[in-house]
Amino acid sequence: MRVSDNSPTLQPAAYLCRPPRNPRTAYGDGEALRHFAARLGLPAPVFYLDDVHPSSWGHRSRPQFETLVRAVIDGTHRLLLIPGPWVFSSDEGRIRLSLRVLSAAGCTRVLALPKHHATVLQEHPATVGERPGRVPGQRRPSV
């Protein structure tokens, strides 16, 4: 299975958060995203890692998410890989807002890890959308 991001030369991005109580989780998620990209025939992703758990964000800054959005605006990335939508927030509204921001910036596709691809995600049963690789509430990009 090969995924097109409208430009085969663009490197995909990957967004992670490092929970303060379990920083090794981000490492496991990162490895799973590298394998996922390879399985899709993509180059290794560029990682953006915030050192805060999504449930504690509130109004706190997410500097690497902001850097990711700027990189998408600049045309560096069009495809984003995530371990699951929970990296954006534990709140469904904030997840949708993060996806809208990325889409408005120019991100054409967000893919979440399928359940069978990451053992870390078994703690988070709501991380995969209606179909593997789809984020809940995300519409298919118009081509």
Task: Tell me about this structure.
This protein has 143 residues and is an alpha/beta fold. It has helices at 24-39, 63-73, 92-105; strands at 13-17, 46-50, 79-82, 109-112. It has a four-stranded parallel beta sheet with strand order 2-1-3-4, with helices on both faces. The radius of gyration is 14 Å and the shape is globular. The two termini are 19 Å apart.
Could you name the key traits of this structure?
Rossmann fold; single chain; 4 strands; 143 residues; globular; alpha/beta
Brief characterization of the structure:
The protein has 143 residues and is of the alpha/beta class.
Per CATH, what is the topology? Rossmann fold
Spell the H/E element sequence.
EHEHEHE
Tell me the CATH superfamily. Answer: Resolvase, N-terminal catalytic domain
Distance between the termini: 19 Å
Give the overall silhouette: globular
- The CATH architecture can be named as 3-Layer(aba) Sandwich
Number of strands: 4
Strand content: 5-15%
Oligomer: single chain
Alpha carbon gyration radius:
14 Å
The profile of the biggest β sheet is: 4 strands, parallel
> If you average the pLDDT, what whole number results?
76
Can you count the helices?
3
The total tally of domains equals 1
What's the helical proportion of residues?
A: 25-40%
**Lateral strand order in the biggest sheet:** 2-1-3-4
Structural class: alpha/beta
- Low-confidence parts lasting 5 or more residues at pLDDT below 50? 1-6, 118-138
CATH class: Alpha Beta
